[in-house]
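Quick one before lunch.
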Amino acid sequence: MFNKVLIANRGEIAIRVMRACRELDVKSVAVYSDADKNSLFAKYADEAYSIGESTPSQSYLNIEKIIDVAEKCGADAIHPGYGFLAENSKLGKECEKHGIKLIGPSGSVIESMGDKITSKKLMRKAGVPVIPGTDKGISTIEEAVDIAESIGYPIIVKASAGGGGIGMRTVYERDELIRAIESTQSVAASAFGDSTVFIEKYLEEPRHIEFQIMADEHGNTIHVADRECSIQRRHQKLIEESPSPIMTDELRERMGAAAVKAAESINYTNAGTVEFLYSNGDFYFLEMNTRIQVEHPITEIVTGIDLVKEQIKIASGKEICCAQEDISVMGHALECRINAEDPLAEFAPNPGKITGYRSPGGIGVRVDSGVYMNYSIPTFYDSMISKLIVWGRTRKEAINRMERALSEYVILGVKTTIPFHKAMMRSPDFRAGKLNTHFVDEHRKGIMEEMEKIVLEDKERVNRLKSTFLPNKKVAAITAAVENYMSTAQSQQKQK
Ligand code: MV4
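Model of the MV4 complex:
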């Protein structure tokens, strides 16, 4: 096992990884930017080092600085979390040069999955179902017209270097095709420096269902069940659940087998996610994500597997914890992403100081967060405050429990997505599991109306709360006590 792991990330995921380290008796090292000087993750770590200015390119994306810290402090591995340097194949190469293990798949796998044409070609060859269309770049308009006619409209033009929704255009008839190709090419050229585009059949009302996979360095590959991620807005996921409301044992077996085949065909190692689009009983490979994902906790909750701990164990050369037949799904988990955004104003970011904070608890509730009372959310990074995760024996119990947990959650000082989630939990179509990737857009009016009501209700509740709320002096004392507790934990850990 490693002696010391450097976490090249910030916020809740940095703490999540450090928690796994502590359970494994591995020392953790935080690197933090100027904006994160007072952050919880830097306090939680056994050691913490400043790596410079708040702009990501100066700190969390600065490979040279991060490797330098790892070498100087004697870390034998780096965990990249999600975002920032996760899925950056250069980090892997630099780690290798310096004899540091990167906790993740190999650089060549990251590269081939980053290119959508390459990944699609590899998957088709491996016998994984792919969306009808081309898996080579479009070179002439005549070729595009022929392909579009043969698959039939509507079609979608996608950038090969794309992903996350940038560089895509749907085309419903021949007249729109030339313009769509030209515009996708030019967006792709400026966004990714690669104008290669390809064409697929456009699936009009798909669900986004993904499979967690895990592979060790001894040739064992398993899937750790499915997640439904259709509740998103502008390609930002808002709610995830496991299992998908439409999942059956038979479908999980088929999709899981395809996910394992996908991973095995490229000699994948460590944790990964195979994304599928599901439409009318059929499923198709969409993309593969070569990192631990934001929504991994719902999988941990229903399977009992600590995915981050497994990542670290696998990277240190150990065998994966379980065989496929040892994995089962118990009950239902939901995750709501709590962002500092105003859901009544098109989800505009709303960073600032958290002036009141009380997180929910009780049976079946997990909160993964990096914030605390009086914490100021920096403007430099994404707006996620925390992930509220619940478990229930059934989907219905999980939804009711999420409603209860959301009702307990108090965040003052910044606007959050809590009202959106409360409205969603009340939505009859959501409760019925009638989901597809257009859900949020199509239910916009109903959700907005429900949110208006909820915000008024909450204002009254907060006013009642405030009259019994702790006076400011006590708040400051509690904040100091929390911080003191974190640093005590740190010094105890050092003594161990
Ligand atoms: C599609 C599609 C429908 N048909 N491809 C969006 C992100 C990018 N990585 C792929 N995406 C899509 N590809 C075909 N052939 C619909 C989407 C899509 C989507 C997919 C997953 C989750 C949310 C989505 C929201 C809009 C569009």
